[in-house]
Amino acid sequence: MKKLFDEVSCRCSEYVTHHYSTSFSKAVTMLAPSIRSHIHNIYGFVRFADEIVDTFHDYDKETLLNEFENEYYKSLDRGISLNPILNSFQQTVKSFNIDNELVSAFLKSMRADLSVQKYEDVEEINEYIYGSADVVGLMCLKVFVGGDQDRYDHLKFSAMKLGSAFQKVNFLRDLKHDVQNLSRSYFPGINMESMTMTQRDQIIEDIEKDFADALIGIQQLPKEAKFGVYVAYIYYRRLLSKIKSMPLEELTNRRIRVSNTQKASLLLGSYFRYQLNLV
């Protein structure tokens, strides 16, 4: 019966992925069936931790995060948790020998969101981005390469750059919410309420460099993962393109989105490029 419980746990993580992020969920469906559930399991874990610090304003967030973290480590030790999200995640961690340092770094960045509202220097924000995004890319990379450490080490840099690019795009996309609702600023030396075009363009240039470094690694991924990751890459490149082309005041006053029609077009174009070996 443990097998049935594990299957149900994985389905819970899949449900979380689908209902919290339709775009990411769509990209996951482009992965080989053998690895999809593990990416759902990773997403479920990071999404729940993120929800605690960003959404549960009427509750004691620190206590909830402490309990979530403690229960995770118990599940890792016991091989089971009655929290299906943690139960499925610990299965993936053990199956692919995901380094505990990655999980610890992620939880450290989530904990920072409880107290840090403004990052004053580059070193601080780089550490935050490493924990909140880069390590998630590295967890996924462990799955993509089937736990092959040599291949993991070879692609590690690009995976981290992709995570950084995604996170920085999210910072710009969610600028209005972060500043007005959470009073957070993730760009050192910049007042986000009075950001200039020059400052925005410098941020975008930095993200484009991250994307260029990431694409080198995407091109070398195993076939089981390559197309799905490429679809996510193209989607975020489109988000960045929209951010780059819009007036600055619009960026600070609404959340940037890609329409379903545009997503379908991006998916179709990505498929043809992939089939023609242009990736």
Could you explain how this protein is built, in words?
- This protein is mainly α and 279 residues long.
- The protein folds into two domains: 1-95, Farnesyl Diphosphate Synthase (Orthogonal Bundle); 105-279, Farnesyl Diphosphate Synthase, CATH 1.10.600.10.
- The protein has helices at 2-20, 22-28, 33-54, 61-78, 84-95, 100-112, 122-144, 149-173, 175-180, 197-218, 223-245, 248-251, 260-275.
- The mean pLDDT is 89.
Secondary structure layout plus pairing:
Blueprint: H1 2-20, H2 22-28, H3 33-54, H4 61-78, H5 84-95, H6 100-112, H7 122-144, H8 149-173, H9 175-180, H10 197-218, H11 223-245, H12 248-251, H13 260-275
Helix pairs in contact: 1-2, 1-3, 1-5, 2-11, 3-5, 3-6, 3-7, 4-5, 6-7, 7-8, 8-10, 8-11, 10-11, 11-13
What general form does the structure show? Answer: globular
- How much helicity do the residues have? over 70%
- Average pLDDT rating: 89
CATH topology (level 3) name of the largest domain: Farnesyl Diphosphate Synthase
